[in-house]
Amino acid sequence: MDPLLIAGILTVVLFVLLAAGLWVSLTLMLLGLLTMVMLDNNASGLIFATTTWGASSSWALTALPLFIWMGEILFRTRLSEDLFEGLTPWLSKFPGQLFHVNILSCGIFAAVSGSSAATAATIGRMTLPELKQRGYDTRMAIGTLAGSGTLGLLIPPSIILIVYGVAAEVSVARLFMAGAVPGLLLVVLFMGYTALWAKLSPKSVPQDTRHFTWADKFKAIRNLIPVLSLIIFVLGSIYTGLTTPSEAAAFGVAGALILSLISGTLSTKSFNESLMGAVKTSCMIALILAGAAFLTISMGFLGLPRMLAEMIATLQLSPYMLLVYLTFLFVILGCFLDGISVVVLTTSVVLPMVQQAGIDLLWFGIYIVLVVEMAQITPPVGFNLFVIQALSGKNILYIARAALPFFMLIMLAVVLITVFPSIVTALPDLMVN
Amino acid sequence: MRRFLDGLYAFSGALAGFFIVAITLVILVQIVSRWMGYIVPSTDDLSGFFLAASSFLGLAYTLKKGGHIRVSLVIQRLSRVQRHRQEFLVLAVGSGLATLMSWHLGYMVYESWVFKDVSVGYLPIPLWIPQSSMSLGMLIFNIALVDELIRVLRGAKPCYQDYEDELNLEEV
What we know:
The complex is a heterodimer. The mean pLDDT of chain A is about 90. Helices cover about 80% and strands about 0% of the residues of chain A. In chain A, α11 (about 170-200) packs across α22 (about 395-420), α11 crosses α23 and α20 (about 360-375) packs antiparallel against α22. Chain A starts with a helix and ends with a helix. The longest helix of chain A is centred in the middle third of the chain and has 35 residues, at about 270-300. Chain A has 23 helices and no strands. Chain B contains six helices and no strands. By secondary structure, chain B is mostly helical. At the A-B interface, α1, α2, α3, α4 and α7 of A face α1, α2, α3, α4 and α5 of B.
């Protein structure tokens, strides 16, 4: 059969199966199998088995369940309360005041958790009621939370960067280094916008009359020392090359357990809940990765990625134009699919095309995560929107509108890293040399 | 039978959790012994094997708890009758696919055993041992899918449907 015809059939089947509610992982496997059948490949069973074994027993992937577990443990501690109490005194004089607690708490939590929905949920359940009670503008409170919740995807350790690294065969440690500066850039953009907004609409921010002395400030931040040391230790050991991401993750789990013990939230029940929560998430992701690995191999047999790459070469498409098209494609895909599925589908088909256009795969990983972040806060399927809907009781369109400025800010960050790629590559280059 | 099956899913789920703990311990032991100047052989292989065991043994548990993600945009708009047919359809496709996969993974274990394949690391571990955990996990997943299919055939709602309305905070 003609490869283009097969590709057309596969695209239709993909959307039908997904819309019919077949699980993403099984959909990927079925597509891979279908490709093999249409190509008359009679070794498909053997290829499936060996690919699945190879993809599932990879040593680099062990960081995944461990970082998920670490986040699950910390999710069940007093961390969100500590963040709120510790940061409030420091921000009382800054325009926008407690809105920034939302942003900074999310940024810090993102550095111990790899998921954006978990970040938004953990921080939001603490800050949203507090902000409302003190008379802050609800819409801006929701907007700051929705936007900065997505930081969980970019600021390392990040689950989606591990998935990309394993699927695209890019070093996870380097991806973690590459994500740090763009993550901080987003925090700065969010805080800058919020401060500007607060200056322009002073009525929406209540006057905080409390006065905090320096003694208060340092007393408040004392509770944050354990978690900050955990972050510095885990990320620092990866950045300096002392440990691999998997080893840092094992330390992270140990550190999170100690932290939870100190704060008095560790019990047999919370331990088991955190572990089984980690089982659910990591099994789900592992099966998707196994399916994606098989689909990638099948696509290789079909030759579709190579054909797309050749097409790029003959069209003389500039990298910028390619990125514009891809951004549209990803934002549309992200309207229906979660971030991980978007990433694995991408790596199966478009990576050779991206390489052909001369785009660095390390840079591309950060770019795709930023685009997925935008997708997290666009309706109809944006996981952060669902989380905040559950927390605030507002409808999804209200939340999406509140998040719109932050969507634009992430878009700005995408433009910035495209114009100045060194925002992404400078840190990894520096660390490797 | 019901109690046996539910016990099976819970037990294999707990085993998956156990293997995550085991990965953590193996890696910690590796680092600490490296600091003390010892090299514990094959820890990389071992943690990879434990990962495969954990990922596959937890599949059935994850299915029952609604942990596997799918696109719910269309199906949540279906009427009760349509939804029932849709769940039947995806479970039938899923069961068929899982049967095929269980067969091929099982066959791979058999071949590794016959050809005495061993891991390439320092310690030559016979590959059929770690591979059988994967194959077993897939088989239990397969049983769980067929189990759900039979539930739906009898007119009941599949177990995972109750959990899917709940928020899964860890979905990325």
